[in-house]
UniProtKB/TrEMBL annotation:
Keywords, alphabetical: Hydrolase, NAD, One-carbon metabolism
SUPFAM superfamilies: Formate/glycerate dehydrogenase catalytic domain-like, NAD(P)-binding Rossmann-fold domains
Assigned EC number: 3.13.2.1
Cofactor(s) of this protein: NAD(+)
Binding positions for NAD(+) per the UniProt entry: T148, T149, T150, G213, W214, C215, G216, R217, G218, E234, S290, G291, H292
Record gene name: ahcY_2
GO biological process: one-carbon metabolic process; S-adenosylmethionine cycle
GO molecular-function terms, A-Z: adenosylhomocysteinase activity
NCBIfam families from the UniProt entry: ahcY, PRK05476.2-3
Entry note: cofactor: Binds 1 NAD(+) per subunit.
Protein name from the UniProt record: Adenosylhomocysteinase
Length: 417
């Protein structure tokens, strides 16, 4: 086993924190026992590029329990927890990552993870998928799983251009992922990251959310719950209308720029907040991103506009404009909830990572029946994850009786039947 981490002596601390997360991930713990009994991944090599957190560790250890050989690198250079890396190395996983690695190291670690010649790649942002497609051949890789919106966009772009070489399952699009992880997980950790980085008061503040997908819905709801006035910016008419019906003001970013105290981007698109917006912002405006890559806020334009820069607090950088106004960028424009906070709670990641674990087994068994395209998570997997979670919470469901089953399948029964 090879690895490149910061400090192996942190393993004991990492194991304690992973154990705490596992206590709040009952679905994945059950699947881990199932995989171990079946040896579901015996002889299979998996390369993963993920946020290296305690919750991610629980997922990878479940795969390891099923017999998989796992190589791991980071999907974000600032979300890596060094003690988790050390703990995973001691558990037999090859880890190539450490907190705040530079971009050159980040790229090298991707190549080191892929050096295992994986049968399957597990991605968060599609960096592994893209790296494989930049090679002449993809080696032994037969399938991939993509966890986040931005990565699904990249995988679909490859598919649309007829370049995708193997099937990719879009875990991000599963209801048990985006209804919960994106809405409740990202909604909470984004607000958590902003508060930890700034210690600002949300009550009475105007918070601008760019993007009203499931992440944007979660951020907007939690900001309103803490007393903020929320403005939504959108390019999609249906989502904008939904924001209006949910009680939020909808404005173009050029107008919202003059009103916001805090700005949060959650779109998966580059250049959402740009130079013309910085020029209109009030003194003290705070800029945060909760999209996967640090491209949603035009950081280069912000730096070019500023006459001075200073680090005020950890994860809080001040940009002084020539006219004296100060704008504040959080977490270097990267995922604020992953960088400045603890990422999504374990109880939420239990769902997303259960989806990933079951899709891993599904792909390794069924890949030959799937075309090189982006595929949905099978409905049976999604339903099983939800059912397991409800059971873990002690919640029971109703079931249809025989008469209701007949009615549900009938076309004869109606108003005059």
């Amino acid at each position: 086993m090879n690895y490149d981490i910061r400090d192996i002596s942190l393993a004991a601390q990492g194991k304690r924190r992973i154990a705490w997360a596992a206590q709040h991930m009952p679905v994945l713990s059950q699947l881990s026992a199932e995989f171990a009994a079946e040896r579901s991944f015996e002889g299979k090599r998996i390369a993963a590029a993920l946020h290296i957190t305690t919750e991610t560790a629980v997922l990878l250890l479940a795969l390891r329990a099923g017999g998989a050989e796992v190589a791991l690198c980071a999907s974000n250079p600032l979300s890596t927890k060094d003690d988790v890396c050390a703990a995973l190395v001691e558990e037999g996983i090859s880890v190539y990552a450490f907190y705040d690695e530079d971009i050159e190291t980040y790229g090298r670690h991707i190549e080191q993870a892929l050096a295992c010649d994986p049968h399957l790649v597990m991605d968060d942002g599609a960096d592994l998928i893209v790296a494989l497609h930049q090679r002449a051949e993809s080696g032994s890789t037969i399938a991939a799983i993509e966890e986040t919106t931005t990565g699904v966009i990249r995988a679909r772009a490859l598919a649309e251009q007829k370049l995708l070489r193997f099937p990719v399952v879009a875990v991000n699009d599963a209801p048990t992922k985006h209804y919960f992880d994106n809405r409740y997980g990202t909604g909470q950790n984004t607000i958590d990251g902003i508060l930890r980085a700034t210690n600002t008061l949300l009550a009475g503040a105007t918070l601008v959310v760019a993007g009203y997908g499931w992440c944007g819905r979660g951020v907007a709801a939690r900001a309103r719950g803490m007393g903020a006035r929320v403005i939504v910016c959108e390019v999609n008419a249906t989502r904008a209308l939904e924001a209006v019906m949910d009680g939020f003001q909808v404005l173009p970013m050029l107008q919202a720029a003059e009103l916001g105290d805090i700005f949060v981007t959650v779109t998966g698109i580059a250049g959402v907040i740009r130079g013309e917006h910085f020029q209109r912002m009030k003194d003290g405006a705070i800029l945060a991103n909760s999209g996967h890559f640090n491209v949603e806020i035009d950081i280069a334009a912000l730096a070019d506009s500023a006459s001075e820069r200073a680090q005020v607090r950890e994860h809080l950088e001040e940009y002084r404009m020539p006219d004296g106004r100060k704008l504040y960028l959080l977490a270097q424009g990267r995922l604020v909830g992953q960088v400045a906070a603890e990422a999504s709670p374990a109880a939420i990641m239990d769902l997303s990572f259960a989806d990933q674990a079951l899709c891993t087994r599904y792909l390794l068994q069924e890949y030959q029946h799937l075309t090189p395209d982006v595929h949905d998570v099978p409905a049976a997997i999604d339903e099983r994850v939800a059912a397991l979670k409800l059971r873990a919470l002690g919640i029971e469901l109703d079931s249809l009786n025989e008469q209701q089953e007949v009615y549900a399948r009938s076309w004869q029964l109606g108003t005059v039947s």
